[in-house]
Amino acid sequence: EIIRQTAAKLKDKKHTVGFYVWDEPFCDYLFKEARRQSDILNEADPEALLFSVFPPSYNPGPTWDNGQYAGAFEEYIRRLEPPVLSMDSYPVGNYCKLYDGLVYTDEMQLDDSPMWLDLFLARNLARKYDLPFWFYYQGCSVYSTEKLTFPMVRMMMYAAVLYGAKGLQNYTATGACHLPSETGKDYPRNWTVLLATGEKGEFFEDQKKIHAEFKNLGNTLMALENRGVYHSTDLMPYGKYGDIYKTYADSIADSTVLAGELPGRTSVGELQDAYGNTYLLVLNREFEKPLEAKIPLKGAYHIYEVSREDGKQYLLDAADALKVSLAPG
């Protein structure tokens, strides 16, 4: 009854578009309860977006290690029938006390992160069930993060877009999610957009700028479908999840336009519009260094650049390689 009363109270509010039903359901009884509440809300407000988010593969239940993650993710979709497929991942932190082996280091950065496996799976399931893909990225210090820079945040945002994400969500805009370090060392709480006091955090201006970029790119990106995601060979295969990665990863040999290997810590999303035009989104996964490179193509092409400044397309010289100059992340 409380759920019905809350829905009735909120549904006609100007800015109510839906209800956040459940955060990270991952097992049978959570699926049952999330579906029960979704049905109540749907009856109370049939036009509302009934939102939930599936957890990353580091969680108390289904994981890649125990072989249950892919099955649980698909079961979540079948049983809850969400209007969008949303998942989260907060890979920059010290997970060692929670999940063995997930410790962030400057040397590895995210080269061996299971986040990439999670993204491949989410992309595939979004395709299979014809659902928009949304992604919660890490925007603050979580699990005693000893280091978090905006290039790290930016890289996670663009990584999701490589896989066709149509919605990006920040966890979280304030530093309230900070957890104290087990070592007793207190890490800065201003690694965020806003402080809990309402003051600007360290990421405020950068976040404002990247929101403007995505607004400019939005009309183009929303019309594109992901056809493949290709990573340089320094990602994953030698790591703990290497064998699983090989079963999910797209092969650059299947690309319609890319030829050869990618530069270190480089990823490319190959996307296509309804007219068959191919778009390449190039990501510098390196957090500390810029990327200056030429990415070989299978032939000479007329190349257009979609500007992050105004969203317009500009014709560049025809070339058999894509010249990129990218900041860290």
Short description:
The protein is of the alpha/beta class and 329 residues long. Helices cover 27% and strands 22% of the residues.
Which secondary structure elements does this structure contain, and how are they paired or packed?
Elements lengths: L1 H9 L7 E6 L4 H17 L4 E5 L15 H12 L4 E4 L26 H14 L4 E6 L11 H13 L4 E5 L32 H18 L3 E7 L10 H7 L17 E7 L5 E7 L6 E11 L2 E3 L6 E3 L3 E8 L3
Parallel strand pairs: 1-2, 3-4, 4-5
Antiparallel strand pairs: 6-7, 7-8, 9-12, 10-11
Helix pairs in contact: 1-2
Judged by helices, strands and strand pairing, the structural class is alpha/beta
Tally of alpha and pi helices:
7
Give the termini separation.
Answer: 47 Å
| pLDDT < 50 stretches | 176-181
State the shape.
Answer: globular
Rounded to an integer in angstroms, the radius of gyration calculated over CA atoms is 20 Å
Proportion in β-strands: 15-25%
Strand order of the largest sheet: 3-4-5
SSE pattern: HEHEHEHEHEHEHEEEEEE
Biggest pleated sheet: 3 strands, parallel
> What is the average of the pLDDT values?
91
- Helical residue percent? 25-40%
Number of strands: 12
